[in-house]
Each structure stands twice: as C-alpha cells, then as structure tokens.
C-alpha cells in the first residue's frame, strides 16, 4: 500500500536488535551532478563503523552502484553490501559476483558515448554488467537517452531497463534490492533481527516491500509521493543525523530519536 508523505513520520532511533540496510546515493550521500562528483562527509564512515559494531555487524549498504564502487567511496570501511540493485552480494566471506557483461554491451557503451557528445553533461556510467545513462546535468537529453536505452534493450537478452533519479540503466533482469535484503536476512549476522531499510529512489521500493512484509521499518528519504515506505526522513543530512543519533550507549527499539 502506498502511504502519503503527509502520513509518514520520522523513524525511531536505531536500536541494537536491528538489521539495518542503507541505500547510498540520495540516502547516505547528497546527490551530485554526476556519479563521481559525490562527496562522503568526513564523519560518515566512522558513524557507519560504530553502528555496524553496535549491530554486531548487521549493517549492509544496498546500492545501484557496484560493490567495488561502494568500497571505493567508503574506503577503508568495507561493509556487507548488495551492488547493482541487488545483483551482487557480499556478506562476510560469501560473495555473489555480478554476471559477466554480454559482448553486445561494449558496442552499446560506445554508441552511448557518441550520443553523449551531442549533449554536454550527459554521463555514461560503465558498471560492468550494467550501463547507466545520466542526464542530471543535461536535462534536454532525457528523451534521447530513454529512446536510446529502449532501442538497445532487444540487443541484450535477459536485460531490462532500470529507471531512476535522472538516470536510465540497462541491467540484467535478475534480482532486485528486495531479494538481496531477503537473502541477507536468512543468514547471520542479519537473521532474527528487525529489518530496517532506508532509501530514496524507485529501485528501493522492492526493499521497502520486503521489510514491510517482515514487520520491519521502511524509511523513504525525500518527498516522493508514491511509496510503500512507512517512515520518512527529509534528506541525506537527516539520515546521517538519524544514524549518528544512536549515541555511545546501548539503544533499544522505541527510544526517542
Ligand atoms: O541505489 P543507490 O545507491 O541510490 O544508487 C542509485 C544510482 O546512484 C548513482 O546515480 C545517482 O546519483 C548520482 C550522484 O549523486 C547522480 O548524479 C545521478 O543522477 C543519480 O541517478 C549511481 O551513479 C548509479 O550507478 C546508481 O544506480
């Protein structure tokens, strides 16, 4: 069921019995003009590391970026992670690698780069098995990028389009963030904990559905009207404040934020 932003309230402060899943762009990090223009606030890795210790390791980053990309952003911190919208998975020693990119994707990437030359500001993001076409810094390119992605899709059997915030991606159709969260919840250290997921974009809705079905907490970041999330935080700064608000001592479900 879709809850209105007007009815969503701030989530409670993080509690020690949570399994916490956090989206990256637009949730932990402020959005930037291009994927490589994001900045990680200096205090954030330490906040995440402290929270992960507090949760006995049950904190994972769940992103559309690759796991390598996530690790590069937060280095030297290396957390359990789901990358490429749930295609890749890492928890402890367990790793589900991303599929190998089909040969046709290289040609499509080159064609996209040529198209980008006509629209200054367009970014073609090579994510290995996935390809992101970004128009945040080039709004007039939106229609051309969608048309390009739709035309390219039939050349990539087993692929689908992933629509996101000022981006359309060509990605393998398998998996989503919800399935990745469900998989992590079946194994330690996530098992038998209250699942909590915060995210801002369309790709996060599958994660909200899974944590809702488990009786957990779904947290929408921003003011998108149509979402299954039950709680809301205004922006990434509010998310970082929420996570930092756990403080140094033990915390329990229901504590005031
Ligand atoms: O699931 P997420 O962690 O939210 O990742 C979703 C996509 O995030 C990145 O793109 C978005 O953030 C960029 C930097 O702020 C922004 O320029 C772009 O417009 C956004 O769509 C990332 O580049 C993608 O690979 C992720 O799929």
Automatic annotation (TrEMBL):
It is an enzyme of class 3 (hydrolase). It comes from the Bacteria. The keyword Signal does not apply. Pathway: Glycan biosynthesis; trehalose biosynthesis. Its EC number is 3.1.3.12. One of its GO terms (biological process) is trehalose biosynthetic process. Its cofactor is Mg(2+). Keywords: Hydrolase, Magnesium, Metal-binding. It catalyses: alpha,alpha-trehalose 6-phosphate + H2O = alpha,alpha-trehalose + phosphate. One of its GO terms (molecular function) is magnesium ion binding. Transmembrane segments: none annotated. Belongs to the trehalose phosphatase family. Removes the phosphate from trehalose 6-phosphate to produce free trehalose. This is Trehalose 6-phosphate phosphatase.
């Amino acid at each position: 069921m879709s809850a209105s932003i007007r009815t969503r309230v701030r989530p409670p402060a993080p509690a020690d019995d949570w399994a916490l899943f956090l989206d990256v762009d637009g949730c932990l990090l402020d959005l930037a003009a291009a994927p490589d223009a994001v900045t990680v606030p200096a205090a954030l890795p330490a906040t995440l590391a402290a929270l992960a210790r507090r949760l006995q390791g049950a904190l994972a980053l769940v992103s559309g970026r690759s796991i390598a990309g996530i690790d590069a952003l937060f280095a030297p911190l290396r957390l359990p992670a789901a990358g490429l919208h749930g295609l890749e998975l890492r928890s402890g020693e367990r790793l589900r690698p991303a599929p190998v990119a089909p040969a046709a994707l290289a040609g499509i990437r080159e064609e996209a780069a040529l198209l980008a030359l006509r629209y200054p500001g367009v970014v073609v993001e090579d994510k290995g098995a996935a390809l992101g076409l970004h128009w945040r810094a080039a709004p007039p390119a939106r229609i051309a990028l969608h048309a390009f992605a739709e035309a390219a899709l039939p050349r990539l059997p087993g692929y689908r389009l992933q629509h996101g915030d000022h981006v359309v991606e060509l990605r393998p159709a398998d998996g989503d963030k919800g399935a990745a969260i469900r998989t992590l919840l079946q194994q330690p250290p996530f098992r038998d904990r209250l699942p909590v997921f915060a995210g801002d974009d369309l790709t996060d809705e599958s994660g909200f559905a899974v944590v809702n079905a488990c009786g957990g907490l779904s947290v929408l970041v921003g003011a998108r009207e149509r979402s299954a999330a039950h709680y809301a935080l205004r922006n990434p700064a509010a998310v970082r404040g929420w996570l930092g608000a756990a403080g140094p001592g033990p915390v329990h479900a229901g504590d005031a934020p």
